C-alpha cells in the first residue's frame, strides 16, 4: 500500500477520462470529447481547484472525500483509511468526515469506541497547513459527535473554544449557505452535524440530497450509488452526497475492494465519463484504485490543464 491517496492512483484515474482528448461541458451535467489542446497547463492533485472559476457553486463540483477520515487504527473492522489527513488532502481529497468525542473539554477523534490517536486540533492543523500552501483549494468538513453523549450546547461550547481560545476561527467559513468556490478558497467550509455549531447544516433537506445506506451489503449498495450519481446529473440544484462506503457483512477494506472498482468502471465508462456535478463522494480506501483522481477529472472539462505528478 502506498502512503498517498496517491499520485499514481490519481494519474491512473485521470488518464481513463482524458485518453480520448480533453473533456468539455462542466456546466451541462455531461462531458463531450474534443481535441486535446497543444499546450495545457500542468496541474497536480494538490491544486486541482485552481483550474475552476470563482463563480462555480460548490454543488456543481465533483468532490472526492473520505468516510470516517481519521479512522486508521483499531483493526480491520474499524479502519476506513490507510493515509493520514495531510496525505489525503495532498492527493486531492476535499471532503473530510470528522468524528469527535467530547472529553475533558476537547475533541478526540474516534471511530466508535476506538480512539484514533488523533485530536481535532491535529486535523485542523493539517487543514490549515495545506490551505496556506494551496490557497486555491477549500475543504468541506463534516463535524459530528461520536462516542460521547454531551448536550448540543456543550458540544458547541467545546467547538467554539477551538475557534476562539485556540485561534482556529479564521480557518473556517461559518456562514449557513453553500458558497461559490471563490467564497470558500483558503478555508474550511463547516458542514455542521450537530445543532448550534454554525456553518452549513449538514443534511438540511433544502440544501442536501444524501445517499448513506451504510448497512447495505456491497451488491445491494452499488445500485444505490449508481442511482444517486444519475440523480445528481438529471436533477441538479442541491449538494449531492453519495457514500461509497458500507460496513455491512465484511470489514470496510473488503467492502471497498468490491465497491470502489465498480464505481471506477462506472465513472470511466462511455456514459459515466460524461457526467459532471456529482457532488461529494466519501469513500473508504479510495487510493487503491485511483478513484479520487477519476472524480477530480470530472471537474476539469475544457479547462486546458493536464494532470501531472
Automatic annotation (TrEMBL):
PROSITE patterns cross-referenced by the UniProt entry: PIPLC_X_DOMAIN, TAT
User: What catalytic reaction does the record list?
Assistant: a 1,2-diacyl-sn-glycero-3-phospho-(1D-myo-inositol) = 1D-myo-inositol 1,2-cyclic phosphate + a 1,2-diacyl-sn-glycerol
Q: What class of enzyme is it?
A: lyase
Q: Which domain of life is it from?
A: Bacteria
A single Gene Ontology biological process assigned to it is:
lipid metabolic process
Which Gene3D superfamilies does the protein's record reference? Answer: Phosphatidylinositol (PI) phosphodiesterase
User: What InterPro entries would the database entry show?
Assistant: PI-PLC_domain, PLC-like_Pdiesterase_TIM-brl, PLipase_C_PInositol-sp_X_dom, TAT_signal
EC numbers listed for it are 4.6.1.13
Phosphatidylinositol-specific phospholipase C X domain: from which residue to which, for each copy? 54-193
GO molecular function ontology, one term from the record:
phosphoric diester hydrolase activity
| PANTHER family membership | PTHR13593, SI:DKEY-266F7.9
Q: What is this protein called?
A: 1-phosphatidylinositol phosphodiesterase
The protein's organism comes out as Streptomyces sioyaensis
Amino acid at each position: 500500500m502506498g502512503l498517498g491517496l496517491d499520485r499514481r492512483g490519481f494519474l491512473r484515474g485521470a488518464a481513463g477520462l482524458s485518453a480520448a482528448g480533453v473533456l468539455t461541458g462542466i456546466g451541462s451535467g455531461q462531458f463531450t470529447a474534443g481535441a486535446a489542446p497543444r499546450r495545457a497547463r500542468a496541474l497536480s492533485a494538490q491544486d486541482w481547484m485552481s483550474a475552476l472559476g470563482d463563480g462555480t457553486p460548490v454543488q456543481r463540483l465533483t468532490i472526492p472525500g473520505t468516510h470516517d477520515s481519521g479512522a486508521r487504527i483499531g483493526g480491520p473492522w474499524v479502519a476506513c483509511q490507510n493515509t493520514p489527513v495531510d496525505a489525503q488532502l495532498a492527493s486531492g481529497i476535499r471532503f473530510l468526515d470528522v468524528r469527535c468525542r467530547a472529553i475533558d473539554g476537547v475533541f478526540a477523534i474516534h471511530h466508535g469506541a476506538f480512539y484514533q490517536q488523533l485530536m481535532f486540533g491535529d486535523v485542523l492543523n493539517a487543514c490549515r497547513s495545506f490551505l496556506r500552501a494551496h490557497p486555491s483549494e477549500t475543504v468541506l468538513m463534516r463535524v459530528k459527535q461520536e462516542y460521547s453523549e454531551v448536550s448540543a450546547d456543550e458540544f458547541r461550547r467545546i467547538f467554539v473554544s477551538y475557534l476562539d481560545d485556540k485561534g482556529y476561527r479564521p480557518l473556517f467559513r461559518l456562514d449557513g449557505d453553500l458558497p461559490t468556490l471563490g467564497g470558500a478558497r483558503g478555508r474550511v467550509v463547516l458542514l455542521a452535524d450537530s445543532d448550534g455549531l454554525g456553518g452549513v447544516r449538514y443534511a438540511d433537506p433544502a440544501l442536501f440530497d444524501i445517499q448513506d445506506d451504510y448497512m447495505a451489503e456491497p451488491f445491494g449498495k452499488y445500485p444505490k450509488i449508481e442511482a444517486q450519481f444519475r440523480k445528481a446529473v438529471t436533477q441538479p440544484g442541491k449538494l449531492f452526497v453519495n457514500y461509497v462506503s458500507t460496513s455491512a457483512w465484511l470489514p470496510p477494506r473488503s467492502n471497498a475492494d468490491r465497491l470502489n472498482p465498480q464505481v471506477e468502471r462506472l465513472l470511466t465508462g462511455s456514459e459515466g465519463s460524461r457526467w459532471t456535478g456529482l457532488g461529494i463522494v466519501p469513500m473508504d480506501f479510495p487510493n487503491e484504485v485511483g478513484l479520487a483522481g477519476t472524480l477530480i477529472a470530472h471537474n476539469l472539462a475544457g479547462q486546458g490543464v493536464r494532470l501531472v505528478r
